[in-house]
Design goal:
Length: about 260
């Protein structure tokens, strides 16, 4: 579903890469956390998947799409196939809750009739049907994040990416948001969440991928717990990418 093979990214002016030969496969329907100290490379990792940044080398395949072949003019369309949730919600301030979700569907080309059918369903999923007429500034942080999630999942993406979705929320609200993401995952959406929040990671016990200095230092496939330090995974020598299956077989050999 999400495959990175030997992905390296160094920003201009930096002496060390933000991501250093990252190889990883997130399977359909997985729920994976991405953890690491500030500067470890989490945001860059997410930007690789959303194609906000381009790797210097390596291969990225998301939902069967090889990102090398996603041309600049097709990037907005590609991103609409993913659900992306941000820590600062990125809602349209002059539109109501209902309109924020409806607008995303309109952009995606959905008909008016379909939109009128879909929006109430999605608002119900995030438990905000009774707040549909409010504007973002009339909502709490947690409610705003739920609108943002509603907007992302309304198009029924196969993959939902969330970059520190609970960074601006208190503890109780954080728990609510994570339970909502878990519910969305239970419906069959693959979820990748970058976070600093030890409690949510340890509560959910899903896959936990730890980055340190741009490298994967730990990848706990099941019942993962939050940890920031570990011995680096051995580097794979000079691999050539062919197919996702090939990369996967190679990775298994290393483990
Ligand atoms: P995290 O999300 O884990 O805090 P980032 O991916 O933001 O980590 O950053 C990884 C490294 O890349 C850091 O050393 C950071 O300073 C550097 N970096 C991130 N974005 C840029 C940028 N736009 N220009 C230069 N360096 C950057």
């Amino acid at each position: 579903m999400i495959l990175l093979d030997s992905v390296t990214k160094k920003y201009p002016g930096d002496s060390v890469p933000a991501l250093d030969s990252i190889s990883l496969h997130i399977e359909p329907n997985e729920f994976a956390f991405l953890v690491g100290k500030s500067g470890a490379g989490k945001s860059t990792f997410i930007k690789m998947i959303t194609k906000e940044e381009i790797p210097d080398s390596g291969k990225i395949i998301v939902g069967g799409i090889d990102l090398d072949y996603v041309k600049k003019r097709h990037i907005p369309g590609y991103r609409r196939r993913l659900g992306v949730v941000f820590q600062d919600f990125k809602l349209l301030p002059r539109r109501t809750v209902y309109e924020n979700v409806a607008f995303a569907l309109e952009i995606a080309g959905m008909s008016g009739k379909e939109i009128r059918k879909t929006v109430p369903k999605v608002l119900e999923l995030v438990d905000l049907l009774d707040q549909a007429k409010k504007f973002p500034n009339q909502l709490s942080g947690g409610q705003q994040q739920r609108v943002s999630i509603a907007r992302s999942v309304a198009r029924q993406p196969k993959i939902l990416i969330a970059d520190e979705p609970t960074a601006n929320l208190d503890k109780l609200t954080t728990e609510e948001i994570i339970q909502l993401l878990k519910k969305i995952n239970d419906f069959g959406t693959t979820i990748l969440v970058s976070t600093h929040d030890e409690t949510i990671v340890n509560t959910l016990q899903k896959r936990v991928i730890t980055l340190k200095d741009g490298k994967i230092v730990s990848d706990q496939k099941n019942n993962g717990i939050y940890k920031l330090d570990a011995t680096p995974v051995p580097k794979v020598p000079n691999r050539i990418v062919q197919t996702p299956g090939h990369a996967l077989r190679q990775r298994r050999k290393v483990i």
